[in-house]
Amino acid sequence: MERVDNMAIDVKSQLVHLSVLQELDLRLHKLIEKIDAVPNQKAEILSEVNIVKDEMVALTAEKEANEKEKRDIEAVVADATEHLKTFESKLYSIKTNKEYQAALKEISEIKKSNREKDDRDLQLMELIDAATQKLTQLSTDLADKESQVAESVAKLTAEAAQWEAERQACEAELKAAEAHVAPQIMAVYRKVRSRYVDALAHVEAGICGGCRMKITPQLHIEIQRANTVCQCPSCHRVLCPVEKTAEPA
Questions:
Q1: Residue 236: exposed, middle, or buried by beta-carbon count in 10 A (0-12, 13-18, 19+)?
Q2: Which residues of the chain have pLDDT under 50?
Q3: Phi/psi zone of residue 229: left (φ > 0), alpha (ψ -120 to 50 degrees), beta?
Q4: pLDDT tens-digit profile of 126-181?
Q5: SS3 for 3-59, per residue?
Q6: Structural domain 4-31+179-241, CATH architecture
Q7: Of the candidates 210, 213, 238, 211, which has an alpha carbon nearest to the alpha carbon of residue 226?
Q8: How many helices (H) and strands (E) does the chain have?
Q9: Are 192 and 231 in contact (CB under 8 A)?
């Protein structure tokens, strides 16, 4: 644990300056977090459009595959129908019963196959119609989503610009506040802050407000006297007493 002992330094005043400094540091930390999160937030917003686009691409590919299958089926059925007509036209020229029965069997199989293909053709037609309607709806949804996303991105961009302006102002305030802190105390504060966002912790009822560990009575007395800058033996945060609120008259 480091201590800064210097009778020429007004420790109470320094702790007040450190408190102001920490408030600015915390504000700056939050602003930087917001600014750093902007790219991911924009990407998340834009992904909403990509979700709709991806659905449209997948549905379009499915629709095109069904359309191709439908064309192939119709071509096969057309060929089979022509083949069927040829068979039927030759029925009456067949001389033997065996050949006649074989021809009837083949005609029956062709008709059965055509019926099955017609059923599949109808099913594909329904799927294609449903996909067409869905794509029309998705196209409308995409236009709406793109409008919403553009608005959200514009709002976020404006907020990011505001946060950046606040960050620069906060950094200027921080620099001015640092001038009020003694260099040796600033060195301790910055060293602790490299580990914690809050380098300064209040002590109440003998407990460090940072790590919640109990401090010794002797250290508690030193903190109250404010003749030296004290640090928590456990977490090394700079310690200061809790300011007591005056009781109403």
A1: buried
A2: 1-2, 5-7, 244-249
A3: beta
A4: 999 999 999 999 999 999 999 999 999 999 999 999 999 999 999 999 999 999 99
A5: CEECCCCCHHHHHHHHHHHHHHHHHHHHHHHHHHHHHHHHHHHHHHHHHHHHHHHHH
A6: Orthogonal Bundle (1.10)
A7: 238
A8: 4, 5
A9: yes
Q: Strand 4-5 and strand 228-231: pairing?
A: antiparallel
Can you list the pairs that 134-141 forms with residues at least 24 positions away whose Cβ atoms lie under 8 Å?
134/59, 135/56, 135/59, 135/60, 135/63, 138/52, 138/55, 138/56, 138/59, 139/56, 141/52
pLDDT at 93: 84
CATH no. for 34-172: 1.10.287.1490
* pLDDT (0 to 100) of residue 249: 31
Length of the chain (residues):
249
CA–CA gap between residue 82 and residue 76 (Å, rounded) = 10
pLDDT of residue 66: 97
DSSP 56-69: HHHHHHHHHHHHHH
Name the residue type at position 147: S
The residues of the chain that CATH labels 1.10.287.1490 are 4-31+179-241, 34-172
Give the Cα separation of 71 and 117 in Å (integer): 11
Q: Tell me if residue 202 falls in helix, strand or coil.
A: strand
Distance separating alpha carbons of residues 247 and 249, to the nearest angstrom: 6
